[in-house]
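Would you mind writing out the residues of a protein together with its fold in token form for me to study?
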Amino acid sequence: MNAEPRPALANAARRTDKGLSPVTGRRRRSRWIAAAELGLISSTFSTIVSQLFAARIGRDAAVDWMTVAAIPARDWAISAEPSWTAVLTGIAFHQWADFSWALVFFGVLGRWTADLRPATILLLALPWAVFSSATEWFVLVPLFPFWQPLFTLQQPYWIGLLVHGTSALMYPLFARLRWRRGAAAERDIRFTNAWITGALVVVALLGAIALFGSHGYEPPWMGRDRDADQTYIRHMTAHHAQGIDLARIAVERAQDPHLRKLAMLMVASQAGESRIFENWWLSWFDTEMPDCSTEERAAMPGFLTQAEMRQVKAAPADRFDAVFVETMSKHHMGAVRMADQMWHSGGDPRLRIMAHAIRHAQQGEIALMHDASGIPAVATAVRNMLGDNVN
């Protein structure tokens, strides 16, 4: 009389019949668990580095996180002063996105990536960062599934690439995580130990630089023309101050709720940039920033006269939105011209990088004020990233 097969053996037989042996099943589960662990590590690392490094290239991290939060949350996330709720929502959404890309790379594509050596993973991870950041910037955020052009028009593609690249730098650790209980190859252990040590050193170094920077001790000025850089900082700070005043009027009076929220974003972003300008000035030049004269203001491109400011304040309610969009577009066009000149100058590299982002964002806000969306918004963002397209 034949005995009934034991349940464990029967289950193993069924898995074998389906082409999935017990060993293969365990390896697949281990691969997905390691991919999830790697996703948590890589997303957290990119969040920390982004937070610490943002101000070094002229980015206000809180405003950037708020902009990221607006992808899923839309206008709810936007305010004139980034709230902790919006900042944490932006960080959580960013980490979810980075986590998901790691799952795709090592889980969905694990058949080809799971057994690679750390150095090979790194070589593939960097092109993956280009692909994943481009997919988000060109497709997933502005077209499908979020249909939210604000992020793409506000931030040039290279910002997302830097963030994804930072996350991808942690991908070689997968070669260690995929093995349980220290079963990784000795050479992989040595490589990943060195990689983890390097990552911790980078975080500590960036933390120290950020700490000193917050107290007015940024790395020294590195431009070629001190007078030109000082003039740009002073002029853009004054230009931003007027832009903030103009945007605050729209925060109170705009009839279109989306335009009102966009005005709040203008206040937040320009105020954040002005704080960075002030900190850089004090750190680089060790003196108070002189105010701009009346003559300097009058000569700035896009700087509004008192009569133009009064015209906005006095506009009737049913005409306010149109008057504001026309006036703020003129103001932004002037800032774009100033930033474009700095981008093409021999100024401090940080000022030039910041100027490129300002040029992109203010052109993007002009498009947003004119209700850009869909594929035309993506095309506009690409043109804005490559040049001054409003002057």
In short: The mean pLDDT is 93.
